[in-house]
Amino acid sequence: MSAPGFFKRRAGGIELHVRLTPKSSREALDGPEIRDDGACVLKARVRAVPEDGKANAALIALLAKQLEIPASRISLASGATARQKTFFIGGDPEVLVRRLSELFPDDAKA
Would the pLDDT of 110 be above 50? Predict the structure, then answer.
């Protein structure tokens, strides 16, 4: 399975690159997007406001729900106050890649 550009396999998990839109009317993972600088990110939306880490916490909860893992396995690696963020998700990288591929089948070719 090839990895879409919005995540990378790492020892003990994956590194996930996200572009977050806070204060949205809905909560969703919208799929991969190629940014103007060529970076590939996973577009995400949450209802929470970007104050006191509320949007980051909402995004972690959304990722945990979608990936069917405990939120405690997701940590913010960089971008706490930026729209573009990097998360480390602990677990078996192959299982996590498979779950992401199931969520975004057009973006992860076998």
Answer: no
